Amino acid sequence: MKTYKNFSEYKTSLLTALDKVQASELDDFISLLLKTRDNSKNIFIAGNGGSAAIASHFVVDLLKIPEVNKKSFSAISLCDNSSVNLAFANDESFDVIFRNHLERVAKPGDIFICISSSGNSINLIKAIEYCLARNIFTLSLTGFDGGKLKKISKHSVHVNTEIQDYAIAEDSHSALLHYVVTKIRLITD
């Protein structure tokens, strides 16, 4: 994990990473979320470690957005049911915990959002591959060089960071998801 000598260096790195994010990727993300809500479909979100916490936080923020035309977001973090995840991991493998969960609950037209600093988490890759074969929309939020998830996801928001710079990747993801929620609130108010 990269370390920083002082706050100024950290702040510069964070702002540089955010400055490289493509606004069009965020616009596509917002459109996809609104389409999912308007079609009464589900949003499933997952990540590992710090990205799991970010996924859970994003679900809270989506669920707190007021209804529009009697429709609200249906968002579920696949990270939040440890009993289900541990059962899948114990019976098969940690590599399939999210895919197995999606097999049981996701339907065509739903969206699966994965959050990964490296973009190379096997359990997220397997989940994305499952979704791609079943008309479930996919979006990856990645850091570092984007890894495999950036390449295979139908949609992506990429934060270009140094390899192993988890702090900048995760803080950027958190900031971008807060932006997405505030933009949706602005559009729907």
Query: Overall 3D geometry?
Result: globular
Percent helix range: 40-55%
User: Mean of residue pLDDT?
Assistant: 96
Q: CATH topology, which one?
A: Rossmann fold
Strand percentage: 5-15%
Architecture, according to CATH?
3-Layer(aba) Sandwich
Report on this model:
By secondary structure, this protein is of the alpha/beta class. The protein has a single domain, classed as Glucose-6-phosphate isomerase like protein, domain 1 (Rossmann fold). Helix content is 54%, strand content 14%. The protein contains 8 helices and 5 strands. Strands 2-1-3-4-5 form a 5-stranded parallel beta sheet, with helices on both faces. α3 links the parallel β1 and β2. The longest helix has 23 residues.
Topology summary:
Layout: H1 7-19, H2 23-38, E1 42-47, H3 50-63, E2 74-77, H4 82-91, H5 97-105, E3 111-116, H6 122-132, E4 137-142, H7 147-152, E5 155-158, H8 166-188
Parallel strand pairs: 1-2, 1-3, 3-4, 4-5
Features:
5-stranded parallel beta sheet; 189 residues; 14% strand; alpha/beta; globular; single chain; 8 helices; Rossmann fold; 54% helix
Quick recap of the structure?
The chain is 54% helix and 14% strand. It is α/β, with parallel strands linked by helices and 189 residues long. A five-stranded parallel β-sheet has the order 2-1-3-4-5, with helices on both faces.
